[in-house]
Every structure is written in C-alpha cells, then in structure tokens.
Design brief:
The protein contains twelve helices and twelve strands. The chain is α/β, with parallel strands linked by helices and 389 residues long. The structure holds magnesium ion.
Length: 389
C-alpha cells in the first residue's frame, strides 16, 4: 500500500462559553483535519489542533507531504523516522501537532486495513472507557459555578479550573465557588499554566489547600525543574507537570529531578499516539501516573487518544477533553456522547469515526470567515509578565 495524497482542511467550531485562562481567552476551537489517501482506496483521518496557528500547521504539512507520498502508511515507525530525520523536524516542538495528525491518519489506515479498532492495535482494553475531568471555565466565581453545572448534571467526578489570575483572592473565590457547586466528594484540579513564582505558588497552594485539591497543575515555570522539585517538596497538594513534560525527553527530565507527582502527556506535542503510549510507559517505570493533556481537540483527535487511554494502564487519573465545551463537532452524529465523563472508544475499524461532510463544510466556511477570532490571540489583549506574581 502507498500513500497517494494528503489534504488539510482548517475548521473552526464555536464553544458554548469562552475559554478563559491566565493569558487570554478564545471562543472556539480551530483544528486542521488531515486526510491521508492511499492507492488501495483507504483514507486515514487525523486532526491537528491549530497550535500555534492553522497556517503553521498547514505549512508544516506542505513540507511533510513529499516525504510521505509514495511511502507505505503501515510502516509507521519508519515513516515517522523519515519525517523527523529526513525532514529535520526532530528538534522543532511547535510542529508536532501537524506530524501527529499524519501519524494518527496512518493508524486509522492500519486499523481499517485490519478491520480492528485502535484500542486492539494498542494492546487491547484495560478499561472500558477513557475518563475525563470537566473543564469549568469562567472569569468570576458565579461564572465558574455556572460553568460546572452541566458537568454536575452529567455526573463528572473531577473538575478542572484555571488559576493564576493577577489577584490570588480572585483565584481563591473561584475555586471555593467551584467546591461549593460540586460538593465535598468531587475532585478539583487547578492549573496555573506557569503563572506563579515559587514563592507565589507556595502562598497560593497554602491558601487553596482548604478547597481540597486533587492536583495543582504546572504552578511554576516548566523550564526550571530544580525549582519545581523545591516547590514539590514544600507543597501540600500533589504537583502535576504539564508545560514541563511535553515530550518523552522532557518527561524523563521531570522524573530525574523528582519535579512532579504525575505527568501530563500528549500525542499532539510529541508527534504521535505511539509516543504517547511510550510516555505512559516511561512514567509507569518511575511509578508516576499520567493524564492526557489536550490543546483542544474535536471528535477525531479525541477518539484517537481515547483508544490509547483505554488500552494503557497508567492513565490512572481523568484526562483533559474539550468535547463538553463544543457547540458541535465534525464527526457524524455531532459531539460524541459521554457518560459521567467517560468516553468509550469507538468500536469500528481504525479511529472508528467518520466525518460529516455538511458539518465539515460549515465549519471550514466559518474558519475562512472568522478563523483568527477563534484563537487565543484575543484582540487588544495585554502582554502578561511572567511570572505574574
Ligand atoms: Mg495545563
């Protein structure tokens, strides 16, 4: 079998409510859908979040195209080595989602060729469903409490909220409002996205620990692992690495420094699903659990990762998922249904998802009309200082 072509379609899908974090906000997701065609009539699907932009993802795909067309899509290890080494993409992290989307599409092709879902190809089910936390996004305490409501009604057990505002009291009020809303038994994970200095993080974690947190995610810069380790030694709340642990090499460094209690891993940021499986194995050897990080993914990429989560034992805590924030999706049936924050991987061959042509056309048009306004590049946004406190 040979790859005959590669198409890229940028799409924009609105959120039900804007996503707000320490550095801005966005009102929807932009992704680039990737379709890899073959000479045997099988087409593989992939999806790359538009990081840092859809234009850059498309530009990377243009450079990858001549490296993959004519190659055998079932030789995934070999193909990725070719892209990374011959294509000299092996040291450029920002390009990873584009390459990960091609790898994802190749796995879809292999699954369709074998007539098996990816879960089976990645080792078979160790759990029936991937579990996710519910993202309660909002600017004020009332906003956050209101944002959590659909998650409470759907029976989620873990809630995720951004912190790292300029005003610590505002963070405390929002987390306290979330605790009030979700009740005493639910777990709450806060993510500062590196906004704090170590001293500020110690103060913030002390202040927030009354809210009974599951993890504090990347409280300080991920670039200084000695400082992360120093904070971890003093923190009453377990530390979840994220910006410190984008790739397998970063994860190994976090482990060597003793800088976290758990690791975020991400196929998009480390060039593919197989690498995410490897990440989980590296962390497992260090007795650290992993969660899947998401840059924001629609039904295609969410399904792909769910297959890996369901077939890999070390995803012991709920992962990140943007499906509950979406007004719609591009897969047949719209936004995939979850039960209590659990998504069963599709059982069809490959990723097990099919694009809905009408929806793809609608959201491709929306990207062409308004694409830029869906990104984090909020007009008139001020440039924050780092660390913020
Ligand atoms: Mg994070």
């Amino acid at each position: 079998m040979r790859i005959t072509g590669l198409t890229a379609t940028p799409i924009a899908v609105p959120f039900t409510t804007p996503e707000i974090w320490a550095y801005g906000e966005r009102r929807g997701l932009v992704s680039v859908l990737v379709e890899v065609t073959t000479d045997e009539g099988i087409t593989g699907l992939g999806e790359a979040p538009a990081y840092p932009s859809a234009e850059i993802i498309q530009a990377v795909l243009e450079t990858v195209r001549p490296l993959v067309v004519g190659e055998d899509p079932t030789l995934i290890e070999r193909l990725m080595k070719r892209v990374h080494i011959v294509g000299t993409w092996h040291h450029v992290k920002a390009t990873s989602p584009a390459i990960a989307a091609v790898e994802m599409a190749c796995w879809d092709i292999v699954g369709k060729l074998c007539g098996q879902p990816l879960t089976t190809l990645f080792g078979g089910r160790v759990r029936d469903a991937a579990e996710y936390c519910f993202y309660a996004t909002g600017r004020t305490p009332d906003d956050v409490a209101a944002a959590a409501k659909p998650g409470i009604e759907a029976g989620y057990g873990t809630y995720y909220v951004k912190v790292g505002a300029d005003d610590l009291d505002a963070d405390i009020a929002r987390v306290a409002a979330l605790r009030d809303a979700v009740g005493p038994d639910a777990r709450i994970r806060v993510d500062a996205n590196e906004a704090w200095s170590v001293a500020a993080a110690i103060e913030a974690i002390e202040a927030l620990s009354g809210c009974r947190l599951e993890f504090v995610e990347q409280p300080v810069s991920g670039r200084d692992l000695a400082e992360m380790a120093r904070l971890r030694a003093r923190s009453r709340v377990p530390i979840l690495a994220n910006e410190a642990s984008w790739t397998r090499y970063d994860q190994l460094d976090v482990i060597r420094h003793g800088a976290a209690d758990a690791l975020s891993v991400d196929n998009q940021m480390d060039g593919g699903l197989l690498n995410m499986k490897r990440s989980a194995g590296i962390a497992e050897a260090a007795a650290l659990p992993v969660v899947k990080h998401s840059l924001g993914e629609l039904g295609v990429a969410t399904a792909a990762a769910a297959h890996v989560i369901a077939s890999t034992g070390n995803f012991l805590y709920p992962s990140q998922c943007y499906l509950p924030l979406l007004t719609d999706d591009v897969v047949v049936g719209g936004v995939p249904a979850m039960t209590g924050g659990r998504l069963e991987p599709p059982t069809g061959p490959g990723l097990g998802v099919t694009l809905d042509a009408d929806r793809v056309s609608r959201y491709a048009d929306l990207y062409q009309r308004e694409g830029g306004s869906f990104s984090f590049t909020t007009p008139n946004r001020t440039t924050p200082e780092l660390p913020k406190r």
